[in-house]
Specification:
alpha+beta; Alpha-Beta Plaits; 3 domains; two-stranded antiparallel ribbon; 7 strands
């Protein structure tokens, strides 16, 4: 979905949450949409339960049937997945036939190699492959790839220690360590430390950063409770409705 469509969709997210819940109830599903937000990859739909394939089809059909939306630009909805980290060894850093060619292996070359080998069928890359030289005096490359995988790691297990041909060379897929990154605590939702090393006792809501679970926001968040002492009156958010309020992010 292009940026204009995403912005328009998010602007009217409350309407879409209501409509999606109606469509899900019509299919006799117990899944309900809590809220919708945008992310760098598109749109994230947060639900109260894990979606089934039939629920994903309902979601896809609803989005593709929206007005002023090009259905060809809508990707198939997917459940959250884990990242797996692999490396490929045994490929030339300068793969081109010309002896004097100094054009090294690029990310695009690696993507083409992956598309042409059947062991990578049904494998989706998280990002562009990274190519580095084994050493300054070596003519071989190490290729780092990150793939989307199930939490069980079934795709990764099917690739580790597999061999495939790249021209006259035999390449091998190996397991790699996860990329170093900045952790985000799932307790206080701040960056820079893990959940296990968090010093705050109890959980905090990801929306309002108050001391209650995120799924209990509508019940305990004072933003969603009625307040008759202010003018204009602050109405209570209905239990079957998502929170309509906006908040400043904890890390901002």
């Amino acid at each position: 979905m292009v940026k204009d469509n995403i912005d328009r969709f998010i602007k009217n997210f409350l309407i879409h949450v209501t409509n999606l819940n109606r469509n899900l109830r019509n299919t006799k599903s117990k899944v309900l949409v809590d809220f919708i937000c945008s992310d760098p990859l598109g749109i994230t739909v947060v639900t109260n339960k894990v979606l089934l394939n039939s629920n994903l089809l309902t979601l896809e059909k609803y989005i593709k049937n929206l007005e002023n939306t090009d259905s060809t630009q809508i990707k198939t909805p997917q459940l959250p997945q884990s990242k797996s980290y692999l490396k490929i060894i045994g490929i030339l850093y300068y793969p081109h036939e010309s002896y004097n060619s100094q054009e090294h292996l690029s990310s695009k070359d690696v993507e083409n190699i992956i598309k042409q080998n059947q062991i990578f069928d049904n494998i989706t890359l998280v990002s562009k492959p990274r190519v580095i030289k084994v050493s300054p005096k070596s003519d071989m490359a190490i290729i780092w790839i990150n793939i989307w995988d199930a939490q069980s790691g079934v795709k990764t297990k099917g690739l580790i220690n597999r061999y495939f041909n790249v021209r006259r060379y035999i390449a091998t897929v190996r397991m790699a360590n996860a990329n170093l990154s900045i952790p985000q605590c799932k307790n206080c939702w701040k960056w820079g430390h893990s959940t296990f090393s968090c010093r705050i006792q109890g959980l905090k809501c990801v929306k309002c950063n108050r001391p209650h679970k995120s799924e209990k926001h509508s019940e305990f968040g004072w933003y969603c409770k009625a307040n008759n002492k202010i003018n204009p009156l602050h109405l209570e958010t209905k239990k079957d409705k998502p929170c309509p309020h906006t908040f400043k992010y904890t890390n901002c």
